[in-house]
């Protein structure tokens, strides 16, 4: 028996099968659903699950990048990859996603809530604040709420929410983004406790900066933290996320520095911590000009 199988036994310590309820999934195949799965960390997490022989469902707004990502995974691992072009902030997104899964003979065995956005700069100047809250907070919450109950009935699968190390502190100049990731960490830890022993994994992945286009898109590429804090590749980060998820950890902070920084950020008094983080996150116009 592998270590992961031993973890499964422990996770199912309170679960009792209900044959009548379980019968509705007998004709369906389990799949790993990854939102924001067309690139970056989401794509690499999908690759890690595909490497394990899992069927993967990639969800994102744009069809072309989705098909490119799906084709790459199919060619590399020969696994089944379904693409679902969908804006997960739609009010009917959970139902629409489930219908697409059923139409193709799948159910959501694992949900990876990776879709998210960031905003950099002064809070009072951020006009896309509503979009950030819809995507980082509401969409993640309702997707987890929609798919998790069936996972608990089946006594298997789970949810992996992608947050950030920034969720452990206030983040001047990325205030709403940091706050949204704090919500994700708190929500995940609470739900993991509520569902303990029912056979499901409920985990949050909280990495520091990762080498993706995310920071440039949010306008933070010229902040000091991008220069001072080493950023691993998305492949390395995803490998850590999937491995610790399978091993049953609730809060996953990758590498050696990640856990140490998380402890420091939680223990340092905010009057000391907040100015330091603000200094690291503040966009630097001089750096922007130097890079042109």
How does this model look, in words?
This protein has 292 residues and is α/β, with parallel strands linked by helices. It has a single domain, classed as 3-Layer(aba) Sandwich (Rossmann fold), CATH 3.40.50.720. Helix content is 50%, strand content 13%. The chain has helices at residues 3-11, 19-22, 40-51, 63-77, 93-103, 129-154, 175-194, 214-217, 225-228, 234-246, 257-267, 270-281, 285-290, and strands spanning 29-35, 55-60, 81-85, 106-113, 158-162, 201-205, 251-252. The radius of gyration is 19 Å and the shape is globular. The termini are far apart.
Label the overall shape: globular
Order of neighbouring strands in the sheet with most strands: 3-2-1-4-5-6-7
CATH architecture: 3-Layer(aba) Sandwich
**Largest sheet features:** 7 strands, parallel
Number of domains: 1
What is the succession of H and E elements?
HHEHEHEHEHEHEHHHEHHH
Distance between the termini: 56 Å
In terms of DSSP E residues, the strand content is 5-15%
Write out the CATH superfamily name.
Answer: NAD(P)-binding Rossmann-like Domain
**What class do helices, strands and sheet pairing give?**
alpha/beta
Total strands: the figure is 7
The CATH class turns out to be Alpha Beta
- Helix % is 40-55%
Question: What is the overall pLDDT average?
Answer: 94
User: How large is the count of helical segments?
Assistant: 13
CATH fold descriptor: Rossmann fold
Low-confidence residue ranges: 286-292
> What is the CA-based Rg, rounded?
19 Å
